[in-house]
Amino acid sequence: MFRLVRLSLYLVLIVLIQVSLLPTLLEDPFKPNLIIIMVCYLALREEGTLLGALFTYFSGLLQGVFSGFYFGLSGISYLLIYLFLKRISDQLYTESTHLIVFAVFLATLFDTFVSLILISLFSSSTGIYGSFLSSMIPQAVVTALVAAVIFPAYSFCEQRFSH
Length: 163
Prior knowledge:
By secondary structure, the chain is an all-alpha fold. It has helices spanning 2-25, 34-45, 49-67, 73-88, 97-122, 128-161.
């Protein structure tokens, strides 16, 4: 129960930062996706597949509410990212910061590809492909760099204040 409350508080903080603070400070292709960082963390380091999957899907729906983009699109792609990473997490050394940064980079690229595929299947808009493809690499790099800063800091704080 405490774990769910802690994760919910992190999600509220992340959504507030991503929706209110980051758009005022950074331009669009260079805004990191903090929710993907949390999804990768949940998949690689937390226990509990069903609760994590529901939490991940809800996180994507919450981002869809605030982003003004197609509602449910982020929920589906985040759930796919979570399930894939959770599936292979047993074969990986999940305590490695390098692995999580690489997973965040690939997850950001995968999120863009899933969004493109689903939009092309269910929408008639054509001008969106250029904006997705031009911002895909910068956003993946920036999100991975932010993950490279967050995970060591989080691990340090977790070890420092858990005793």
